[in-house]
Amino acid sequence: MPLRPSVFVAALALGAAATAQVRTGADVLAAEHCERLRGRKVGLITNHTGVLADGRRTADLLHGAEGVTLVALFAPEHGADGRLDAAVADARDAATGLPVFSLYGATRTPTAAMLQGIDTLVFDVQDVGCRFYTYLATMRNGLVAAAAHGLRFVVLDRPNPLGGIALEGPVAPADRLDFVASHRVPLRHGLTAGELARMIVGEDGVRAELDVVRCDGWQRADLWADTGLRWTDPSPNLRSVTQALLYPGIGLLEGTNLSVGRGTDRPFERIGAPWCDGVALAAALRAAALPGVAFVPVRFTPTASRCAGEPCDGVDVVVTDWRTFAPVRTGTAIAVALHRLFPQQWDTAQLDWLWKHPASLAALREGRDADAITAGWQRELDLFRMRRRPFLLYE
Fold first, then answer.
1. If I label 319, which of 72, 77, 88, 91 is the partner at 20 to 30 A Cα–Cα?
2. DSSP label of 190
3. 329-379: per-residue pLDDT in tens?
4. How far apart are CA 352 and CA 252, in angstroms?
5. Cβ neighbours of residue 68 closer than 8 Å, sequence gap 6 or more
6. Positions of E strands within the chain
């Protein structure tokens, strides 16, 4: 089967730059024979992305490690298998027989009852580098619970698929933090899980004994294709690394009356609605001359989520150059085009749910262009770049 254009171009753009195989924190831990967890009673926050390079689960590594007692597993949004798009129930792990406590159900923070018999929480989940993706909110909740109960907290670090240099979008203010904004970071934050954990401890005074098992060989400029690591779809509607790259921009539009491709075979690679004119939208976006991306008019009918069963007109968003593509700027330009072309049809009431920047929403409604809106974030991003510097682990 031929590669889709976005995947093919990404392969061409990144193949020559690929570095040697990166080792994740889980692989580094395995190479150390789990020595730093010897004598510990462990609760593991993980899902299907918590795997080693040889395909073993981190759960199985710890369950079989000499001197390590794996007591329980904890599952984030989408469940231990990464298949659910609903609340997650407690379960039991078939391979180990251990309980799997849900952190996306009745509670999102480990309780005292869940933590009984545990002295160390370990986090091993692959994030995608976007503020409103919830896995790092689950990490934060685990870190806070560890501090409250006197537990050690260990992060098995993994690369940021979007790299660690580019930063985009407004920084979430302290009074807007929630499960889709776990810390005061921009939409594209350029941090690994371990770096964000260090930032939370350092900036918010979370008194947990934090230990980050660093990746070996990852550099800040590396995108996923540079790592040599296998890609595992981190959730049901992020089915490729291309969709993960698009997610911080296209995902921004999710709270509105627009399909972002859920219920199709290309979630976050297309947008549309029954009231949209894809030809006009594509023309407006081509005129914006956005770097690293092209727009193709399409018609589609989602089978689920927003606009389910309704014929939609819209565009496919095709990444042509991973190095220059800016997902949040692209999402902002799409928002500007939608507002100008369809001011009566496109409902922006919930746009700030993920943006978390009223000034940007006001500028959009006033008819400002994407350059003006993104310029409004620059000072915040410059300050964030300085704020994060003490907590970085990679060059």
1. 77
2. -
3. 999 999 999 999 999 999 999 999 999 999 999 999 999 999 999 999 999
4. 9
5. 34, 37, 38, 39, 40, 42, 62
6. 41-46, 69-75, 91-92, 99-102, 120-124, 152-156, 209-213, 270-273, 293-300, 312-319
Q: Tell me if 217 sits within 8 A of 204, measured CB to CB.
A: no
Report the percentage of the chain scoring pLDDT > 70.
Answer: 95
Q: Please give the domain boundaries of the chain with CATH numbers for all domains.
A: 19-230 (3.40.50.12170), 241-356 (3.90.1150.140)
What radius of gyration do the chain's Cα atoms show? 21
C-alpha span between 268 and 239 (Å, rounded): 10
- Which DSSP letter does residue 365 get? H
Is 72 within 8 Å of 101 (Cβ atoms)?
yes
Question: Is the per-residue pLDDT at 9 higher than 60?
Answer: no
d(CA 246, CA 262): 13
Mean pLDDT across the chain, nearest whole number? 94
Instruction: Please compute the mean of the pLDDT values over residues 56-80 and round it to a whole number.
Output: 97
**81-111 exposure pattern, b = at least 16 Cβ within 10 A, e = fewer:** ebebeeebeeeebeebebebbbbbeeebebe
Residue indicated by tokens 């503020």: 131
Q: In this structure, are strands 209-213 and 152-156 parallel, antiparallel, or unpaired? A: parallel
CA separation for the pair 339, 345 (Å, rounded): 9
